[in-house]
Specification:
There is one protein chain. The chain has 3 helices and 4 strands. By secondary structure, the protein is of the alpha+beta class. It starts with 9 loop residues before the first strand and ends in a 6-residue tail after the last helix.
């Protein structure tokens, strides 16, 4: 997967809403935990943060990076257009 090729060595924890859990599950190489509401929580190895964030943006507001905080901040900065709230 594009985010697995690169120099970084991160583990991201991402929560996918029930509406997109099926799609995320089909695209992930790592196993993910089903949530009681039908959502999905996945631990994903990330070597290329930019590619990973690009992929997550396709899920719009139905995917949330839980950790690491630095990766979460990168995504939020991009979505907010570089401004902090």
């Amino acid at each position: 997967l594009p985010w697995q090729a690169g120099e970084e060595d991160l583990e991201a924890v991402v929560r996918f809403d029930p509406e997109v859990a099926w799609c995320a599950r089909r695209q992930l190489a790592e196993p993910a935990l089903e949530q009681t509401d039908g959502g999905l929580e996945a631990r994903i190895h990330v070597a290329n943060p930019a590619a990973f964030i690009g992929w997550l943006l396709a899920f719009e507001d139905h995917a949330e990076i839980i950790r690491p905080e630095a990766l979460r901040s990168q995504l939020l900065d991009l979505v907010r257009g570089g401004r902090r709230e």
